[in-house]
Request: fold
Amino acid sequence: MAVDVITRARDSAPGVNGVDFDSFCELFSGVPAAVTVVTARNGDGLPHGTTVSAFCSLSLKPPLVIVALDRSSDLLPLVERQRRFGINVLAGGQEEVGTACACKGPDKLAGTSWRYDAGLPRIEGSAAWLACNVQDVLDGGDHAIVVGLVTACEPGEAEPLVYHRRNFLRLPNGAGDPAWVAESRAVG
Reply:
């Protein structure tokens, strides 16, 4: 009985099992993120994509990125089997694509303009596009962290679509332009 009390006290100590789900989600809803769709070919050679909330650069030499895929994702086994994936950073105006790819099911890219580039599905009009080879797949709790070697990349002309506080946001046109940045600093 004493061991049970000690175990319960240890497991209820702050930080042992992490913060509660609601607090964690609320905090990260306030961290703006580019809306990103990871793509691969399905078993029939058709495009499959899923919206991810965790995507970032990892290394310059070699050029590596990471994406986190839910372990229950239909995309994860495709990426693990093919050892390749595409990353589409959506542009303002592509909210419907981001929403469609966030749901479970086949044909999430039906009705979306896309093409194959470097053998991977590329969503037309995206703010940026990358092609990657899988370098590693790491454990990340209920997600798998996929490390990709970037084999091709291309920035687009459009500003990226951003997700913040559970809403899609569009950056103003020219937000990345140095003149706009200087002007916004002067105002702030």
